[in-house]
Design goal:
The complex is a heterotrimer of chains A (405), B (256) and C (284). Chain B has two domains: 1-43, no CATH class; 56-250, MetI-like (MetI-like fold, Orthogonal Bundle), CATH 1.10.3720.10. Helices cover 74% and strands 2% of the residues of chain B. Chain B has helices at residues 2-27, 45-51, 57-87, 92-104, 107-120, 127-147, 152-163, 168-196, 200-205, 213-222, 226-246, and strands at residues 29-30, 41-42. By secondary structure, chain C is an all-alpha fold. Classes of the chains: A alpha/beta (405), B mainly alpha (256), C mainly alpha (284). Chains in contact: A-B, A-C, B-C.
């Protein structure tokens, strides 16, 4: 009997190793008319994997994009919850299992995931040039065409551009810190009201700190430099060690996610926060989560400005539908709606000067944010995303030297 | 002494009731922030959204129900029949021992190591895959559950029927299944609950596409939407609470 | 004829009960050695060295073992104490329904509830604030995501203890412990002596395999420490999943190393538990 079991096991392993799904003729963009793609996409199911942590974003996708894709292009959009690591895990697994027709067609990613997906060749493309609406994007803008110091090369389509900003409650503090020295004074004055989340946002903050330690807002540009990193990060860990006793929970632990920090900010547990989308405070004030005395502001040496993108999985079963959907999400109509400060409140990636006049005026007339800061006001404070290896190392070392210490 | 006992019992029962009442209140609330002891809004708003299908909770409830009923039915039936062969086998102890391994392993770890094969055979990110993966942990439970049924006594009954001229079919339909009826009910509901409460395995094999109620609770926690989270909790509690009301044995699982 | 059916039955058993476990173990082992995995480039024991040297695994294992132990000691202890108090009361229909009710709460719900009442902005903190015991939200003590795993232990106990209470009450009845007690009393034993020498040893003797199994379950618990734990140390399942989803793709194998070690440990514990006892089942 035991022999039988091993035999079955062997057979099963071999069988699963030899399995391969049926191949669909691959799509050649250079020889296909856009209208043919739209035609081909009709009636298909599209699976979009995205981070679902924000009610506004969910609302925009499910109540605005989804019904329009259905009505205009007969595409059924299905949203799947999952962010960076889940997307990468899924594609690594599929790659390994040689799955020709994957679970996901389209993904919403940022630079770190882009870097990972490029490593495993998880993306299909280049495709962005073929999108009719790409004509309105300024690909000369380094914040759009370079993602974490890597040329995008039309492998992912820009969707939203935003800058990282600091957030504070003006009712509780009058002079929020704008550099590391001031931060030190601040935490001593208001102990327990600041912390760093152990996630993408927290690491982005650490990148800003690292740039400040480097002595310039451009200090982290260019390829990863081991010596510089060791020198600057050493100073950074010393600094955090120094202020640790004044951090939230005396620095004995750090929140796992930034959403947790938002809740603590909402409850008045912490006074100082941060976030992408120029701080992303308007929607939270409108929801009644944040007090209306909340304000966003730039860090003196600058904060990271980056773009997030839409990509197509290397094994997407419906590449045509993904192309049509991405093109729609890049359209002036969809981008305008996305920029509504009362809704998703996300900056467009379109170059307004390149738009037809009718749209130009519409974009110029978007109501300004009531409480938050605009990306234009933060222009001088923008730092390019550094090489992804800075992020990898910061993650590792923050855990090693701070969290586990 | 009697008084102390009554007080202790009273406190314990109050502690038991607290989460149920609190979650129910929370599910009817909105705008409930520190330091308020009572929500600013209390009413039917959240639940009316569930009924209208807006939150996706209703479909999650139905989906969870379909998955759990499938897992319970298949695990109970296969467990019942296969347990017979395992327990009548001379190496019974070895087989039973092996049965425990997948059962004691943390499902989330099991799922992570198993996911490759699920991707391979196309059972990843769909309901069928989730049912199969949950079956893989519910089945050993059912096997162990029925092991005591297939003892000497049952064997004697089987022999008796055979001596009296009954064929295997009549043995099953007239003797073995009727005798095991109540046990099968208990096993059915307990495997139902294993599936109903499952999170780790479902999150990995379902990739987030298969949104069962436990997955929903986590989504709402991530979104910091505690009111909807409380509603999903209430929906999760409802079936087991009803089962306890009907028959405590369905839920009290002494075997593990 | 009979043997043919038997072989088919056992074949099914192997396919459904053994193969998935074996396959998952083999996969994790191969991955941990760099033999599979898109970002891996061939056989290496680097990942094993990294895990064994880093101390993180040891810390996580120690933490998990300790959390599970404390939770079991409290659960069993409180359940025993309550059994001695209540075993006569359970006859009442409503009370008995209420005692079973905690079994309707899965780990996810218990953890969610713990956040709602124990966090700094939670329900207890609000009462403290309203009464005036704390002036500021920060003054409320850390009860979840805390250094000592208080939230995890409390939630573990709230999940496990009610089960053992019911179990002990059941054993109390089926083993006719009350009769033994009165027998001992008539032979002149003092009440304390009876509890220490007869009641508690009997209850524990009848239930220890289940206590051990629950310990193994808590060791691998996922949802509760995921929601209520902190970033370091993490319990084993949480650590494994974090390692598997990490940013540095070349280190994913480390997660599988921990998974392999964990699987082996749990398997050994089960073996040990099983070989010490013929059957784990408790009838009654």
């Amino acid at each position: 009997m035991k022999k039988n079991i091993w035999y079955i096991l062997l057979v099963f392993s071999l069988w699963s190793a030899c399995q391969s799904s049926q191949e669909k003729p691959s799509l050649d963009l250079s020889n296909t008319e856009w209208s043919a793609i739209v035609e081909q996409a009709k009636g298909s199911d599209l699976h979009f994997m995205m981070w679902q942590g924000s009610p506004e974003i969910n609302h925009y996708i499910l109540e605005f994009v989804k019904p329009r894709l259905k009505a205009n292009y007969d595409i059924e959009l299905n949203v799947i919850g999952g962010q960076g690591p889940e997307i990468v895990q899924l594609m690594m697994g599929e790659k390994q299992a040689n799955v020709e027709s994957g679970q996901v067609d389209m993904v919403w990613i940022n630079g770190e995931t882009f870097f990972q997906l490029r490593q495993i060749q998880g993306l299909w493309g280049p495709f962005v040039e073929s999108l009719p609406n790409a004509q309105y994007v300024d690909f000369e803008d380094p914040f759009i065409s370079i993602d974490f110091q890597q040329p995008v090369n039309y492998m992912e389509c820009p969707w939203t551009i935003s800058q990282f900003a600091m957030v504070y409650d003006s009712a509780k503090i009058s002079n929020p810190p704008t550099n590391l020295d001031e931060l030190k004074t601040y935490v001593q004055e208001y102990p327990g009201t600041f912390t760093i989340s152990n996630d993408f946002s927290g690491m982005t903050l650490l990148k800003s700190f690292l740039a400040e330690i480097s002595g310039s807002s451009q200090g982290l540009n260019g390829p990863f430099n081991e010596d510089n990193y060791l020198e600057w990060s050493g100073k950074l860990w010393d600094f955090i060690e120094e202020i640790r006793p004044y951090l939230w929970k005396a620095g004995s632990t750090f929140p796992k996610e930034q959403t947790k920090m938002d809740q603590m900010f909402a409850n008045g547990e912490i006074y100082l926060g941060f976030g992408f989308g120029e701080g992303a405070i308007d929607d939270k004030i409108h929801q009644g989560l944040f007090p209306n005395t909340t304000r966003a502001y730039p860090w003196a040496n600058g904060t990271i400005k980056n773009t997030n993108y839409l990509g197509i999985a290397y094994n997407a079963p419906n590449k045509e539908a993904a192309l049509v959907a991405i093109n729609y999400m890049l359209s002036p109509e969809a981008q305008l709606q996305k920029a509504d400060p009362k809704g998703m409140d996300a900056n467009t990636v379109l170059d307004i000067d390149q738009l037809p006049d009718e749209w130009k005026t519409k974009f110029q007339n978007i109501t300004r944010r009531e409480y938050g800061i605009s990306m234009n006001d933060m222009k001088e404070y923008a730092i390019q995303e550094p090489d992804p290896r800075y992020m990898i190392r910061l993650y590792e070392d923050f855990r090693k030297y701070i969290i586990e210490n | 002494m009697v008084k102390v006992k009554n007080i202790a019992l009273g406190i314990y029962i109050a502690l038991i009731a607290f989460p149920f009442i609190y979650l129910l209140i929370l599910s009817f609330s909105a705008d409930w922030r520190f330091p308020e002891l009572w929500p600013q809004y209390f009413g039917l708003r959240n639940w009316s959204r569930v009924i209208s299908g807006e939150t996706g909770l209703l479909s999650s409830f139905v989906l969870s129900l379909v998955i759990s009923l499938s897992v319970a039915t298949s695990a109970t039936l296969t467990g019942f029949f296969i347990s017979r062969y395992v327990n009548y086998h001379p190496k019974k102890r070895l087989w039973t021992l092996i049965t425990y391994f997948p059962y004691v392993l943390a499902p989330v770890v099991f799922g992570a190591c198993l996911s490759f094969y699920f991707i391979k055979v196309g059972l990843f990110g769909n309901t069928a895959g989730v049912i199969l993966s949950q079956f893989i942990i519910a089945f050993p439970y059912a096997l162990i559950f029925f092991s005591s049924y297939w003892g000497e006594q049952t064997r004697e009954y089987e022999n008796l029927v055979a001596t009296l001229g009954g064929n295997p079919w009549t043995t099953y339909t007239k003797v073995l299944i009727p005798m095991a009826g109540p046990l099968m009910m208990i096993c059915f509901f307990q495997t139902f609950l294993i599936s109903w409460f499952e999170y780790g395995l479902t999150s990995i094999i379902g990739v987030g596409k298969v949104e069962t109620l436990t997955i929903k609770v986590f989504l709402f926690i991530k979104e910091a939407n505690f009111y909807y989270g409380a509603m999903s909790c209430c929906l999760l509690i409802l079936p087991p609470a009803l089962l306890i009301y009907f028959n405590k044995k369905y839920v009290f699982n002494k075997l593990i | 004829m009979r043997t043919k059916y038997q072989n088919i039955g056992l074949l099914f058993f192997a396919v459904l009960g053994i193969i998935p476990f074996a396959l998952s173990f083999i996969y994790a082992l191969l991955y941990s050695l760099g033999l599979v995995g898109v970002a891996n480039s061939g056989f290496t024991i680097e990942h094993w060295q990294e895990i064994l040297e880093s101390g993180e695994f040891i810390k996580s294992f120690g933490f998990s073992a300790f959390m599970a132990l404390i939770a079991m000691v409290f659960s069993v202890g409180i359940a025993l104490w309550l059994t001695l108090l209540f075993h006569k009361k359970i006859q009442h229909k409503t009370i008995s329904f209420l005692l079973y009710l905690p079994l309707a709460l899965p780990g996810v719900v218990s953890a969610f509830f713990a956040v709602q009442i124990l966090s700094k902005s939670g329900y207890f903190s609000r009462w403290f604030y309203q009464i005036g015991w704390i002036k500021d939200i920060q003054e409320f003590p850390d009860l979840i995501n805390d250094d000592f795993g208080f939230g995890i232990i409390l939630t573990f106990v709230s999940v496990v203890m009610p089960f053992f209470l019911l179990l002990f009450i059941g054993v109390f009845k089926t083993e006719r412990i009350a009769e033994l007690e009165s027998l001992a009393a008539s032979l002149g034993s003092r009440p304390n002596q009876i509890i220490r020498r007869i009641t508690i040893p009997l209850l524990l003797h009848k239930t220890w395999p289940l206590i051990a199994l629950y310990y193994i379950f808590l060791l691998g618990a996922y949802e509760i420490p995921l929601i209520l734990g902190q970033e370091s140390p993490q319990m084993l399942s949480v650590l494994i999943v974090r390692e598997l989803k990490q940013f540095d793709l070349t280190k994913i194998s480390e997660g599988y190393v921990v998974a392999v070690i964990y699987t082996v440990l749990v398997t050994i514990m089960t073996l040990f538990l099983f070989l010490r006892r013929k059957s784990i089942r408790i009838d009654g």
